[in-house]
TrEMBL record:
Keywords for the protein's UniProt record, in alphabetical order: Amino-acid biosynthesis, ATP-binding, Cytoplasm, Glycosyltransferase, Histidine biosynthesis, Nucleotide-binding, Transferase
Domain of life: Bacteria
Entry comment, domain topic: Lacks the C-terminal regulatory region which is replaced by HisZ.
Keyword Hydrolase: no
Domain ATP phosphoribosyltransferase catalytic, residue spans: 54-203
Stated name of the protein: ATP phosphoribosyltransferase
Assembly mode: Heteromultimer composed of HisG and HisZ subunits.
Keyword Transferase set for record: yes
Pfam families on file: HisG
SUPFAM superfamilies assigned to the protein according to its UniProt record, in alphabetical order: Periplasmic binding protein-like II
Gene: hisG
Enzyme class, spelled out: transferase
One MF term in the entry's GO annotations: ATP binding
Organism, as annotated: Liquorilactobacillus aquaticus DSM 21051
């Protein structure tokens, strides 16, 4: 039976495929899948289920997949205690509080904050002792302070390009984000050899990559 892996499609998928290949998995069917959402490797050892990030944990919780590959931003936002086995060290970015230059984080008025991450945002402002109004936005979050929908945003940034090109400034840095491998606890019992084989192989790939990056910096 194949090990079922819910893989976040899009950016995460693109960053994770090279790691899977280096871990010895032939990803040709995954790379040629076009609009197919379920893809099996030639040797039938793995079945990839291509899903949106927030749905990856839904599949895991329902027990219909064994493994999930998803950003820690989503795991933190959902707060439902997934069993994380590996930080894949790709999809790295960071949560920031950002706004236009005139924003004052210390001002006493109740602020309106635009975000895709209401739980993380609420917690962050609670830690500052502030009760804020949250406007949930699905994408292009940077628009919110520009068009007067919110006073500021909490969003993820990688290169800072989107903020820069829209004249937004970082007012605070929150948690760092990266792609994680999480596992269904039942699968860990039923398919422990297969799961740990995959995790061990990926661990080697990730630590080799980190070592090489360290050598390049030195
Ligand atoms: N700018 C970024 N840099 C690095 N990782 C990011 C960035 N934005 C998002 N991520 C990570 O990728 C995951 C998926 O992101 P998102 O759903 O925004 O993009 P996507 O659907 O892959 O986008 P696209 O379809 O444009 O490739 C996020 O949960 C997060 O962990
Ligand atoms: O710092 P940068 O490298 O510019 O990356 C940051 C952007 O990337 C993400 O958006 P994404 O590209 O996923 O699009 P979205 O706005 O539709 O979510 C994030 O929400 C920022 O908008």
């Amino acid at each position: 039976m194949s090990l079922k892996i819910a893989l976040t499609k899009g950016r995460v998928e693109r960053k994770v495929i090279p790691l899977l290949e280096q871990a010895g998995i032939d990803c040709t069917p995954l790379k040629n899948k076009k609009r197919k959402l379920i893809v099996q490797t030639e040797d039938n050892k793995f079945e990839f289920i291509l899903a949106k990030g927030p749905d990856v944990t839904t599949y895991l919780n329902a027990g219909v997949v064994d493994i999930g590959i998803v950003g820690s931003d989503i795991l933190n936002e959902q707060q439902n205690d997934q069993y994380e086995l590996l930080d894949l060290e790709v999809g790295k970015c960071q949560f920031v509080l950002a706004s236009t230059a005139d924003f004052n984080v210390g001002s006493p008025e109740r602020k309106i904050i635009g975000t895709k991450y209401p739980v993380i945002t609420k917690k962050y402002f609670e830690s500052l002792g502030q009760d804020v109004e949250i406007v949930r936005i699905e994408g292009s979050v940077e628009l919110a302070p520009l068009i007067g929908l919110a006073d500021a945003i909490v969003d993820i940034t990688e290169t800072g390009t989107t903020l820069r090109e829209n004249n937004l400034y970082v007012f605070d840095y929150l948690d760092k984000v990266s792609t994680r491998l999480v596992v269904n606890r039942m699968s860990l019992k039923q398919h422990s050899t297969e799961v740990f084989n995959l995790v061990d192989n990926l661990k080697k790939v990730v630590s080799e990559k980190i070592k090489l990056q360290g050598e390049k910096i030195r």
